[in-house]
Amino acid sequence: MKCNTKGKALNSPASNTDKALEQANTPSQRAVQDNLLNAKEQVLLAECEADIDQNIQGTFVLGYRLEQIRDQKLYRATHTTFAAYCSKRWDFSKTHANRLIQAHLCEEHLKSVKDVEVYVPTKESQVRYICDLELEQQVKVAHEVFAAIGDHDACAGDFADAREKLYPKPKREAKAPETKGMAETAKVESKIVPASFDTKLVSLTELKKRADQIYYIFTNPMKKQEALKIIGTLQRDLELWADWQAKQLNEKEAV
Question: Which residues in 202-232 are b (16+ Cβ under 10 Å) and which e?
């Protein structure tokens, strides 16, 4: 089995844990209220947030920690919902956070497979092609990838090809042909505004600006964490663009 677990090295600062324990031992923190965390929960939350902060690019580490925060509602002391916590604390959308959690769960499942050789994904871009499948189907696709590339490093395209080979998505039915007049009208309208353009997408000019910020900030070791946070935001925005482009392609193929 090919497995990359470098991203699992979790180094939580002792200072964060000690601070959480100290706060948890005060009388006010011991009050029995639903929105307060007990000592164990505060320690866990501190560890989770430290790992997320230090591994902002480590997809599966983020998914592992976000899953704990979501499922145990460790956000409840400061935020009313998991979505609000992700947005305010990490500048993540809930959809992006759940995608990271799905990636972690898929990786964990494939790592546990013993009776067949599989390629364990190392990136969320690989996992997105199989995380919607049943567990047995995920194994079959991962095995197909392993059989195709052997000891080489897989890319997202390898998972996409294996998924399409084993479990192709149903093709959309072609639309009825339009009359000449309707076709000309639609053609003119499409030149003005794309039919399904998402106005929430960040402009490409802004994405370039963020990339330039990262380049200059990363040269200063004191601002490494600031650069990592910008990278996280940039990754999320680029994924939204990728999803939008994929949607446009699907709509074009359906015509």
Answer: beeeebeebeebbeebeeeeeeeeebbbbbb
- Kindly write down the DSSP assignment for every residue of 108-133, as one continuous string: HHHHT--SS--B---SHHHHTTTTTS
The CA distance from 156 to 136, in Å, is 20
Look up residue 118 and give its two tokens: 């599989």
**Torsions phi, psi for 239 (to 5 deg):** -65, -40
SS3 7: helix
> Amino acid identity, residue 116?
V
Neighbours of 28 (CB within 10 A): 8
Tokens of 248: 């446009």
Six token digits for residue 21? 């324990």
pLDDT tens string 223-255: 666 767 777 777 777 777 777 777 777 666 665
User: ∠63-64-68 over CA atoms, to 5°?
Assistant: 110
pTM attached to this predicted model: 0.48
Confidence of residue 5 (pLDDT cuts 50, 70, 90): very low
